[in-house]
Every structure is written in C-alpha cells, then in structure tokens.
Amino acid sequence: MRPIDVSRRQFLASAAALGVIAAVRPMRPAQAAMMPSPVGQDRGWFADGKLRYRRDGMAKVTGSKVFAVDIRARDLEGWPDEQSHAMTIHIPRADRIYEGLDLSVLEPDGLMPDVLVDAATAQADGLSMPDPDFYGEFFLPAGQLPPMLGQPVAIGIWHDYERFRAARALIRFNNDIFRWGAEAAQPARAPYGAAQYVRIGGSDPRGADVFSAMKDYVVWPATSPQGVTWPGPDDAAFGAAVRHAAAIRTEFDSPPEGLRVFRRHYSSQSIEHVTMEPENGNAWYDAATGTLHVIGASQSPYSAAEHILHLVTESRFTLNRLDFVTGYTVGYGQKEHQSFPNYVALAALYGEGRPVRLVLDRWQHFQFALKRHPFETDMAIAVDAEGRFQAFTCDMIGDGGGVMNFSPSVGTVAVTAAQSVYYFPKSDLKVEVWPSIGVTAGSMRGYGTLQSMAATEMLVDDIAAEIGMDPIALRRINVIGSGMKNTQGAVPSGQMRIDEILALAEQDPLWTGRAAKKAEYEAANPGMLYGVGFGAVQKDFGTGAEAAVVSLEVTPEGRLAMRHVANEIGAGATTAQMLVVEPFVGRPADEVEFSVQDWPQMPLVTEDQPYTTPQEEEDQLALNPFWVPRFTSPRSASNSAYYFTHASQQAAQMLLRLGLWPAALSIWGGGPDGGQLLPEPVTIADARWQNGMLTARSLEPLSLERLAERAHRDGLVTGACVHTFNRWAWAEADFDIDGQQFRAPIDAISVKWGTGADAAKRARMSDGGYAFVPRVKAYYPPVQRNNAGTVYYAPCATMVELAVSSGSGEVRILSHKTWLECGTQIVPELVSGQLEGGVAMGIGHALYEDLPVGADGPGNGTWNLSRYRIPRASDVAVWTQEGHVLPALSDNDPPKGMAEVVMIPVAAACANAIAQATGHRFDRFPITATRIQEVL
Amino acid sequence: MAIPKISFSATINGQKIGPVDLPEDLMAVELLQEYLNLTGTRLTCGQGVCRACTIIVDGEEGSRTVPACITGIAWLNGRSIRTIEGIAGKDTDGRPVPSPVQQAFLKHFSFQCSYCTPGFVNAATVLVESLAKAPIPVAEVEGRILTALDANLCRCTGYVRYYQAVREVILSTPGLTVDGPAQTANATVKA
User: Fold this and answer.
1) Given this model, what pLDDT does residue A118 score?
2) Is residue B49 part of a domain?
3) What are phi and psi of A32, to 5 degrees?
4) Is B45–A42 a contact, with Cβ atoms under 8 angstroms apart?
5) A865 and B150: CB-CB below 8 Å?
6) Are B33 and B58 members of one domain?
C-alpha cells in the first residue's frame, strides 16, 4: 500500500461520507490472530544453529490446513459443525439497467437458496460497505446501471453442500438469471487521481534543486466528471511548477542544436495475478453472544478486521466481539485491501446461526479479484551529443476499473518510478488514473512500476540503437549515482549500486558474444531468429508510512518468545523474522506468534492519517507519548525484509540494552572486589555474541540461559515491545528507562521486568503484562518527506536470450541471467526463490498474459486459465537460468525488499531481445506470437 | 428434490471408504474436501489446467496422476487413490516423516505460498515411481522432469527449486537412472 497521493481533501471527503472524521480509534476493538495450524509444532526446521527448511515447511509440504480456504466449520473448536455454503452472484455486463434476479431456474428442484441477501436486504439491516469510495458498494440495487462488470448483486446461502453445488451448476454462466431493463450509457465519472511531479535540478545533481516535489510541492490538479483540470501557469498554488514543466515541453518541441528528443508510446495490459488460493473466507455469527468469528484470507488483516468492525457495529446486528483470524498463509499478491473479507462477514450475519463459507470459483475470481492496472504511456527523453540524458517527460493514463481502491497511489508510484535507473537533470511526470467498467485494479506486485519502468527500459534500448551506442554503455553514462536526486528531488538512501550490476552485465559473455551467437544460432536453426536483450531497474520498497509492532521476551530458562504483526504470505517472512534477532540476542527466537493484531502491551492511539496530517498538527499530536502516526501496515511482497526486520531488531536491541547487558555486567562484576569486570571495563559497544554466548573484550562468555536467570532474578527488563514508524526515514525518540537515557529509532516502547521485580515495577506492568514507558520526546520525519515518493531502492537487471520462430511467431526463451542487490540476505534460498518467481511472472507479463478491458473482459465471468496463459516451467528456461546477488556492503547492511523488483527488468529484456531477433520494436505488452507474426 | 446418486467405494490413502451414496456428478476434489475433510488437495481452476489438485490413482499398471477437479467419482469408483495426506509417513509419536520428494522440497526451499505444493509432490512422486520401473539415462533426466511436471502451474516460485529438488531425488536414488547417480551442472541458479 502506498497511498502517498491521497490528498487531505480527498480523505476528508471520504471520511465525511463515513462520518468518522479524525476519529481517534483505540487499538483494541478488533481481535485478530493467525488460525491454528500445524506450523509451530514442527521443531525440525532449525537445528544445530542452522536453518534446515522454512519454519512452515513441514506443514506446507504435507498439505496441512494452512490456508483460510482449507478451513471448515468442524475444524474449529467452539464452532457448530454444520457448514453452510454461500455464493456471490456477479453481474456480467454494464450496458443495461439491472432490474433484479430471476432464480426461478432453481425452483423446480428445490434449490432456491435458504437465504438470499441483496442490496435491499443489506440496506434494510443497515449494512453498508466501509469506505465505499475505496471498496465499492456491496450490491447493485435493482433499477440501476451496473458501474462495472462483475459487480455483485446478491449472496445466496445454502445450508447443505449438495443443494449448493446443484444450484451453482444451474447459475454458473447462466445470464438468464438477471432481469434487464433498458440500454444505458455509463455516466461520466471523475478520475480516481491525477498528479504531476516536476523537477528542475541545479547544476550539481547532488546539490540544491531549482524546483522539485521534495523541495516545493506535488501538483494535484482538480478532477471532476469532466476530467482533469490541470492548473495553468498563473495558478496561485501550482503556477511555478506549471511554468517549469512548460519550459521542458517547449524545449522538447524545438530542441536546440545537439539535443535529440526521442518520443515513444507504450501500452501495458490488464493482468490477473492468479493467486492460486481464491478469494475466500469462513465466518460464524453467534447472535446469542453478539460474537462474529471470521477466518479470512488477507494480506492486510488488521484493516480487514477494522472494516468488519465498522460494518457490523453500524448495522442492526449486535456485535460484542469480533475475532478475525487469518489463514496461516495467504495465496498472495492480490489480497491487500480487497473488499472480499467484508462479503464473508456479511454472509455470516445471515447464516441463521451456522458458519458460512464463501469461496469464489476461478471464473468468479477472474471476475472480481483485483487486477493489475493497464497504462498508456507517452515518454520522451532528450539526449545530448555524448548520449547523456538531459530531460525526461512521461505522461501515463491508467485504467483503474470499476472502483477506486489504490488507483491514485498506483498512478503516482508508477510515474515516479519511470526514471528507472537514470539521473535526469530535468523532468516532468504526469499521471491520470480513470474509472472504467472493468474489474477493479488495485495493489499488485510492482504497484505500477512494471508498467512504467519496463517502458523506460525499452525506450533507452531504442535510443541506444538510434544513436549507435551499446545499450549497457548508454545506461552506464546516465546511471544515477549515490547522493544524486531522484525525479522527486529526494536523495535515495545509501549507496546506489546499480552501476556495479551494469558493469557485470556489460562484461558477460552472453552480452559480448551476442552478435556472433546470433549468426551462429540462426545458421544452425533455420527459421529461428535469435536475440539477446537487457533491462535494468531499481524498485522502491515501502509505503512512506511503514509501521510495525514487535515484542521479544526471554523466559527465566532463557527461551526467546517473539510476537509479531507480520503474517505469512508465502515469501518467508515468518522464517526470516525469527532469524534476524540473532545478532543481538545470540540466537533466533524459540517461540513466535505471528499476525498478532491485539497489542494490549502497546496502548497507542492514532488517526492513521500519516500522509495527510499537516506538520503543525502532527507536532502537537506527537507531544502525546501514546500517539503514533499509524499503528501497523499491511503485508505486501516487499516490505517485510527492511521494515519488519528493523522492528524485530530494535526489540532485540532493547532487550539486550535494558536486560541482558545489565545482567552480564552483574555477573562479570560480581564479588566484593568488582569481579573480572574491574580490570576490563566495557561498554555495550563491546558486546559480541560468539557461538551463542555473550562476551565483551576478554570477559567470560555467558549463555543466554545464564543471562536470563540473572535478568529475572534482578528484576531487569526481560521483555521489550517496540513500535516503529518510517516516513522515508525512521522516527526516533528519547527514552529514560531504568536510569538509562537514550535515543533509539523507535517511537514507543513497553517493557516487562523479570520475576524479581519489586512491587512498584510489578504494579506498573498493567498493559498486557508490560509497562508502557512514555517517550521523553519524539522526532518524526517531517511530513514534507511524503513528497519524496521513495528513497529506498533495490536494483536489479536481467539479460534474456531467446529465439523467435519466423513462421509461428512463438518465442522460446533459451536462457536468462539476473543480477540483484538487496543488502544482506536473511535467507539466501528465500531470496533466490523470490527472484526466480519474479522473473517467471515478468515473462508472463511480457509474452503471454492479457485481459480485455471492455465488455469481453474477465468481468463477464467467462475467464479462466483455459484462456489465460501463465508461464509454465517450459516457458521460463527452468534449467538454464542464473541469478547473482551482489554481496552486502557490510555485516550490518540492512536487507532490502526485493520481491517486486525482480519481475520488472525481464519484461523489458524480453522486448529488447525480440527487437534484436526480429528487427521490430514492439510497444505493447504482451508480445504474443500473433503480434509477432503480424510484423514478420 | 432428488439428486441422482451412485454407490461409491474406494481406497483412499490405504483406507477403505464406502459404500456410500454420493451425487453421481461429484468431482474427486469435492469428495476429498467436503466429505472427507482432506483439504490438502487444492482447488484452483476447476478445469484440469493448473494441476494444483493432482492426486495419484494406483492400479495394476502402476501409478498415474489425475486432476481431481475434473475427475468424477464415477470414474474413481472402486479404485485406489493417494492424496497429499497419504504421502508422508508417521513416526512413533505421530509426527510426519516426509517422503524423499517432500524432503527434497523442504531442503531446496522449493515452495512459497505452497498452494500448488501437494500437486507437485504427487506429480513428482509418480515420476519417481515410474522411473523405478523404467529407469532412464542421466542425460534424459531434466527433459523427463519437464515433461512430467510441466502441466503443474505455480505462481510464486518460477519452478526452479521444485525442479532442482526432483532432479536431486532422481540422481541420488539408486535404480532411477540406467547409468547411475551422477552430477549435472546445468542448473546454475546461485543466488
């Protein structure tokens, strides 16, 4: 989630509609957890100090119940055994008035649903979709024009499986169940979002900008059903940016001597993510106690629980308790801030006391699950006589489908990534994202950057050919260096290492020998056209408002217990987070509870408006030590390695600083004469863990068990629960705990003292067994950093070798090689698995996957894998691929989020390789065999 | 209403099921999930395309895979079936003892979300069993794996670690190749 461009105006409009303006919410109303599963029972994953396999490996490889979709009512203790089954009914067209459902086809066989919930039912019972601007409405009322294909009109509930499946067979693909009225045209709708980022750099790429989003502002134009009203040069708020942008555009129209402008148009398609676990959930409403139990599949469980809470409390249904439980793992990539968990909860309210299971079949999943945005992109780069890029313009128009969801931020993330790996002295980037009748597009792997950066990489390759330079050499003379500013005017974090990758790629035999190999291959394989292509990108990770909570405590016996907000989406976060504490506490966590959403230890308050709160207001709010800008963030593919690791390691460092280290000093300094410590004074900077033992300089190595025993005996800190926040920089705060005054990159902490704590300390531990310690002072990154877009990047490049059949147009990938830099690899096997999977997905985007966006698109309910090709092993050169990860800069080089970047360069590399093979540059993804055939 | 039914019996993971009256058009995946609570056989496409629901049918001619989402119980009637729940053994404490294929998938970090993993386990298991009856030259192993597993779709992994694991099982298990365990150097993913 990266809603960096949801303006305060937009937020207030949407909040006003909900009647929840600036409500400060307590953190405890919704309880959520991870469902019981065999994960955690297996101890074999970590042995003798080594990771043997992923923590959830045994449960997963034996087919245990780890997904929400695996759960039936009888699996859950306390639930009734009887399982009801529900089905959403989705409308397949959006060009006629919907007049209602006609389910008479079910009547002869007695298959009518036991309960049917539609718009009228929901309205009568006071049920409405939380944040409907973002999620859409639950059901289309009769008498209205469908706003989109695939919009649900009702949920049917059957109390036995056999009638359910028989009814489903009669309803599926049956468009006669919808009663239609007159044809109607879609009304004009306002764009979901639009923004413009202008930068005029100074003479020094590392110096002050003349103008930039970071230094000045982002241009937010007015939008209405008539379209986007871009401000004029005299606009009071945005005029300066407009004038700078106009100067760039004027220069592009009439470039001075020595400057060549290359303009191209690119099209990127709508994609179905095909998470193999469909949208699903199982829920039980116990009216007698007012308790709603939900098993949901979501990458954002906290938000899902919050929304369900509001959904039910604002209806006629009594809600005294909500238990939202996530599957242990999630079929991921498509389940972030989706509306489906709300449908699951709603269905349960009508279950007549029985648990209700709601699962989309794959046709419905195509029809309703979130999609990747298609974009139409116009790009231009001005290049001087030496091949140096002087200016860049990019105009992107996105199709967000039927409901807004994250469209505004997908648009801005896409356009601010368009610079790819280059430094541009001047740039003007504009984006608009529009509604359509298509299936809603949302947060998807790449978050818009695949669409923009792949285009840039195709354009740069094209320019290289036009000016007669080696494509990698052209990239190297234009690559962004450390300390240089991005197109938002922000300085990226740390060293920019993309040029190390370019240098390796430039010398690779596949690259240096590509011309000779082309001649050789084509001679040996008549009818085949050989090509090698390259692409290099760097992808941001994080949202600009990353928050996390972690607790780590040690038992008197020396066992480490962790609680974490992270939930497993498959990428291995739960394995990794257990391991990352080792440098500070000597070994991985022994016990862990993930997906924890109930944090009595951390009694914080938040408005959850990290992007829109004005600086003065935030300064005032931050005076309250219980206030944080956001409590926690959703899980997406790239945010755990960096942001969650920081939180985990801070908890470990606090446990070391406040508990284990003082315990060590107590042991080393024991005795009347100051013990072994007296002649060898040490500070915590001397602390080292060697073979699981804590030592410092020459002092006696101490086991965690011994330290824990002493920490508990002396009533030292034995548990630390920390909250962290990052707005393109870490929030810090001053603390005063047990006589230690220090500043740390956390914004809240609670501690737990050991069993020997005195009565006063024991009395203070009233927050879930912890004592919240108010910070002395907080230092939040300025809200202006919201304009940075991003500062954290992971660079990646891919080289593809392929052959094209001149007869059929079929592309066969012969081999590929990817270079990646991701800081420290927590688990190298998990990194390479992400890399290989990302490359496969990128190949699908480049060559195969395509969904129509109009009436023939997946919203019509007829799409499935029989007509939507995703890559198979035979499509991805499974035996002939390589991956290289650059070594970390140091032993504390932080791990970087890398799961998204790895899918992007391969798409451009495929296009560039096809260009070398065929002599034709394609500007539209996917580059299918049919499209190739058309030009050969 | 009267939903047409058949009398169904089968052996599933070594356990006899039935006779029991079931809807005649019931698919195997429905039988497993909704009637037997064996949810490790996972449903994705419902078309027999993705093979996440791959199960093993044993017969006199050997084992074979079928997609449970489009295989009706009428065809399975009287047959012997293995699902993912029947692949691993159990130790004396009831803990799972993974099969060689499962062990290799663990060691190679082959899966991520794991939704497709049961299908891969079953497809690879049948491949290994077929090679035990008819071993092949080492040089043909990679091609044979591709042929046997190419129908199984995965959206997380890019397949590499599944394939490397299966190759290791085949090359390290005596009797699966005609020219003995050997090392190959083609798979060069070295992150």
Assistant:
1) 98
2) yes
3) -140, 155
4) no
5) no
6) yes
Q: What sign has the CA pseudo-torsion A693, A694, A695, A699?
A: negative
A60, A65, A885 ranked by CB distance to B111: nearest: A60
The amino acid that residue B65 corresponds to is T
**Does B17 map to a domain?**
yes
* CATH code of residue B61: 3.10.20.30
**Helix (H, G, I), strand (E, B), or coil: what is residue A168?**
helix
User: In this model, does residue B190 exceed pLDDT 60?
Assistant: no
State which of B33, B53, B86 marks the end of a domain: B86
Which of B47, B71, B86 is a domain's end point?
Answer: B86
Interface test with B, best of A52, A878, A898, A906 (most B CBs within 10 A): A878
B97 touches chain A (CB under 8 A): no
Give the pairing type, strands A881-885 and A321-326: unpaired
| Sequence-ordered alpha helix ranges (H) in chain B | 28-30, 73-76, 100-107, 117-133, 141-149, 160-172
Domain that holds residue B65: 5-86
Task: Determine the pLDDT at residue A638.
Answer: 63
B162 plus B100 within the same structural domain: yes
Instruction: Give the minimum alpha-carbon distance from B178 to chain A in angstroms, rounded to a whole number.
Output: 21
Nearest to A666 by CA among A594, A606, A715: A715
Contact A274 B87 (CB under 8 A): no
Report yes or no on B73 lying in a domain. Answer: yes
**pLDDT tens for each residue of A838-875:** 999 999 999 999 999 999 999 999 999 999 999 999 99
List of long-range contacts for A249-257, beta carbons under 8 Å, 24+ apart: A249/A393, A249/A428, A251/A382, A251/A391, A252/A380, A252/A382, A252/A391, A252/A393, A255/A382
Selecting from A60, A166, A363 the residue whose C-beta is nearest the C-beta of B114 gives: A60
Whether pLDDT at A136 is above 80: yes
Distance from CA of B61 to the nearest CA of A (A): 26
Shared-domain flag, residues B179 and B105 = yes
**Least confident piece of the model among A39-53, A679-693, B115-129:** A39-53
Q: How many domains does chain B have?
A: 2
ipTM of the shown complex: 0.95
Whether B51 is in a domain gets the answer yes
**Which of A763, A384, A767 has the alpha carbon at shortest distance from A551?**
A767
Place of tokens 């066989």: A109
Judge whether residue B64 has pLDDT over 90.
yes
Peptide bond into A782 cis (omega under 30): no
Would you say A570 and A332 are in contact if contact means Cβ atoms under 8 Å apart? yes
Q: A97-129: per-residue pLDDT in tens?
A: 999 999 999 999 999 999 999 999 999 999 999
Tell me the CA distances in angstroms from A577 to A49, A571, A639, A827, A899, one per residue in order. 15, 12, 12, 10, 16
- Residue B111 shares a structural domain with residue B78: no
Q: Are residues B79 and B96 in the same domain?
A: no
**Two structure tokens written together for A460:** 């740069």
Smallest CA–CA distance, residue A33 to chain B, in Å, is 18
Same domain flag for B105 and B174: yes
Answer yes or no: do B133 and B78 share one domain: no
Same domain for B94 and B13: no
**Between residues A306 and A882, which one has the greater pLDDT?**
A882
B44·A276 Cβ contact <8 A: yes
Residues of chain B numbered 55-94 and touching chain A (CB < 8 Å): 83-85, 87-88
Contact B186 A879 (CB under 8 A): yes
Closest approach of chain A CAs to the CA of B133, in angstroms?
25
Kind of pairing, strands B15-23 and B54-59?
A: unpaired
What CATH number is attached to the domain comprising B148? 1.10.150.120
Distance between CA atoms of residues A805 and A812, nearest Å: 8
Q: Is A242 helix (H, G, I), strand (E, B) or coil?
A: helix
CA distance A442 to A462: 31
Chain A interface includes B47 (CB < 8 A)? yes
